[in-house]
Backbone:
């Protein structure tokens, strides 16, 4: 049975560089305890380990709700000997209940948009961080993630995909099954205000303009959460098939090699 995991997308060169830049925005160092939320298959966990490994007390707690992703992460990180790694299968919302002690930093890469009640979540983050600890996150799902000149691409892609879905498989999307959390987008100022409400002072915030090749869209079209978000109620294999086929057609029609997507990057410090 095919697995519709995040792994292939996470290996894209542009995505690895994007997350590497985010980790470099932080002040993590050897000897610290760092949490990687929604760790997926461990690509960001590896970046964190490069920064903190080697000291006696260096530790990473990697949390994800997917047993498949955690298994892949464990395999990827199996050879790490100079830092303690703990894996926890869980949703991220009950964060303070998952960790016995406060931590030095929390990373949350490209998944904060799935959290429906960000107010309660930031309370959990604030409770879990040590004073001076960092909360570091990025997301491309925010108000401003899609430059206005790219909106036509998304409309074409969804129209073409749904037309092909009907013609090829006799299927249509079921909007009643739609996951709405990732569409409740905040803008950068709303994120700042909400963070600072919970003693998380934003010290760095930037928007990274990222050119995404067609392979990036093809690979994200093999990830279950993206598929079910764009094609709710459709079998994953068929939805993935039409998304991949149509996105390459649209790149060819538009005569483009890359499409810009914006990522919001934030570092906030517990005060």
Residues:
């Amino acid at each position: 049975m095919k697995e519709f995991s995040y792994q292939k997308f996470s290996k894209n060169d542009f995505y690895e560089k994007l997350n590497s830049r985010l980790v470099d925005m932080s002040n993590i160092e050897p000897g610290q305890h760092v949490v990687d939320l929604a760790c997926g298959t461990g690509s960001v966990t590896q970046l964190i380990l490069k920064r903190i490994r080697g000291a006696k007390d260096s530790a990473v707690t990697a949390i994800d709700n997917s047993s498949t992703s955690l298994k892949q992460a464990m395999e990827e990180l199996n050879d790490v000997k100079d830092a303690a790694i703990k894996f926890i299968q869980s949703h991220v919302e009950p964060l303070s209940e998952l960790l016995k002690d406060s931590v030095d930093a929390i990373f949350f890469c490209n998944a904060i948009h799935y959290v429906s009640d960000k107010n309660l979540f930031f309370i959990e983050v604030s409770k879990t961080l040590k004073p001076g600890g960092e909360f570091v996150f990025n997301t491309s799902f925010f108000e401003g993630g899609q430059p206005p000149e790219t909106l036509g691409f998304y409309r074409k892609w969804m129209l073409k995909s749904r037309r092909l879905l009907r013609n090829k498989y006799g299927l249509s999307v079921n909007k009643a099954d739609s996951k709405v959390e990732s569409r409740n987008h905040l803008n950068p100022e709303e994120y700042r205000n909400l963070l600072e409400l919970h003693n998380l002072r934003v010290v760095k915030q930037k928007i990274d303009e990222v050119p995404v090749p067609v392979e990036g869209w093809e690979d994200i079209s093999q990830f279950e959460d993206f598929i079910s978000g764009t094609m709710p109620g459709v079998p994953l294999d068929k939805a993935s098939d039409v998304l991949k086929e149509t996105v390459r057609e649209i790149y060819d029609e538009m005569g483009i090699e890359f499409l810009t997507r914006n990522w919001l990057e934030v570092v906030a410090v517990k005060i």
Remarks:
- The chain has one domain: 7-270.
- The longest strand covers residues 200-213.
